[in-house]
Amino acid sequence: MIKLNDIASATTVNSWIGPQDAAVSAIVFDSRKAVAGTLFVAMKGTKVDGHDFLSQVIAQGCTAIVTEQAIDTSADVTQLVVPNTGRALGELAHAFYGSPSNELILVGITGTNGKTTCTTLLHRLYTNLGYKVGLLSTVVNLIGDEAVPATHTTPDPVALNALLADMVAQGCSHCFMEVSSHAVSQNRIAGLNFKGAAFTNITHDHLDYHGTFKAYIEAKKGFFDGLQKGAFALTNADDKNGMVMMQNTKATVSTYAMKSHADYMVKVLENSFGGLVLTINGTEVWTRLIGDFNAYNLTTVFGITQLLGEDATEVLTVLSRLESVDGRFQFTQSIGAVTAIVDYAHTPDALLNVLKTIENIRTRNEQVITVVGCGGDRDALKRPEMARIACELSDKVILTSDNPRSEDPQSILDEMEKGVEPQHFMKVLTIQDREQAIKTAVALAQPKDIILVAGKGHEKYQEIQGVKYPFDDFQLVETYFKKLNK
Asked: What's the confidence (pLDDT) of residue 210?
């Protein structure tokens, strides 16, 4: 149990009604969990406002409540009135769990594409350097080598701080964390002490949530605005919004780039299915990863290690041994020499990057067959654009379902088809069933052809009408390759 007055100083309190030494055993924002001993924070969500459940949580015996307006009640409940309950939740949770980010070297990475690859490579790199490291990513959360399933890119503030506290308790020195635009705008990272942050890029995504691209940029920028003096901020100087992110930060700014002058410079010497040969700040290094986008990711990782004081030669040596991240340009080949690539590319820019990488590697004596879909209940404006890009850089395109979620799959495909220009009609098939789409792509492929299965990457499910069915793009490709080889 923790006394309320021991953690309340972590947030701004406009007024306090009731005993200041009330003892709390947990912080909750779900009204169903607000029972005796708990501190209930009345969050204003996109669909539900926790303030509407105050009478319920008080009746359940909740010890204390955090609200944005004081309420009249005869019950013996402590009230804290704050300017913003979302921010207060993060700050109180951080204090409740012993301010764990103060005990870790916590580095956050934000951007439309590259977050998972960069954080995962950092976790693997620092593990190889002999550190015990935490990871918070879309794919998995790790405490050392122990996996903790991830449900969001960034967990809610209570779960997040509990995870960070576990990392501290288990001896982690560092934690590398994906930071989504949702996490910033919803105050999920409020109260955390980041030692550094990196920006990868920003392109069209999440407009279903943010409304406009400007609002999306502002959400990402808010992460850097909140960094403290003494932290570092690393940004992509080749991205037109890279320096916009840095305009109001108190952190020390560094840059990386392939095309611009920067603190950390990368040049691609060779790019093939065998890997990349690069120079990073003049030192040549071979890596198993493929594509210009991975050259950027590797330089982001290198820059972070240098800002954290690691030896450059040792870092580059370890980077040359690291494998690709699951579902990120993950490829396999059939006995008949058909190459299949599975990639998480679910934004126009990510799809463009992957197809351009294939374009740079291919010999022009083969077909590129792209299987692509778009998720339901997400930004619909990118659907025709995804189809247009696929058509322009592929010889055959199969439009199919991704995670339709609550939407009608055919309606999503109808919107994608609007991006198919007349000259590309003959190269496009629409097959709603994703497994059949993958099976068809394998059947159409001739020796030396390249199949790209885009959109789901590492995911092991397909979400349809609220149900997650087992589904693995990479496994399906390998299954149909085996049948092809018989």
From this structure: 47
Helices (H) and strands (E) in the chain, counts: 15, 26
Helix axes 434-444, 473-485, angle to 10 degrees: 40
**Cβ(377)–Cβ(436) under 8 Å?**
no
Check pLDDT > 90 for residue 436: yes
pLDDT tens track for 274-324: 899 999 999 999 999 999 999 999 999 999 999 999 999 999 999 999 998
Q: How far is Cα 112 from Cα 118, in angstroms, rounded to an integer?
A: 12
Give CA separation, 74 vs 38, 42, 69, 190, 387, in Å. Answer: 18, 19, 16, 32, 60
Round to whole Å and give the CA distance between 213 and 363: 37
Q: What is the CA radius of gyration of the chain?
A: 24
Fold of 2-85: 3.40.1390
Instruction: Spell out the domain ranges in the chain.
Output: 2-85, 100-319, 330-485
What's the CATH number for 330-485? 3.90.190.20
What is the CB neighbour count within 10 angstroms for residue 475? 12
CATH class of residue range 100-319: alpha beta
The string of DSSP codes covering 139-191 is: SEEEETTEEEE-SSSS--HHHHHHHHHHHHHTT--EEEEE--HHHHHTTTTTT
The answer for residues whose C-beta is within 8 angstroms of residue 158's C-beta and 6 or more apart is: 27, 28, 29, 89, 93
In angstroms, the CA 171 to CA 246 distance is: 33
What 3-state class would DSSP assign to 480? helix
Strand-pairing partners, residue 372, are 399, 454
Dihedral angle over CA of 324, 327, 329, 335, nearest 10:
100
> What is the chain's length?
486
Pairing state between β 368-372 and 396-399: parallel
pLDDT(75) > 90: no
Could you tell me the CA-to-CA distances from 261 to 72, 113, 283, 302, 468 in Å, in that order?
61, 22, 16, 16, 46
* pTM metric for this prediction: 0.87
DSSP 229: B
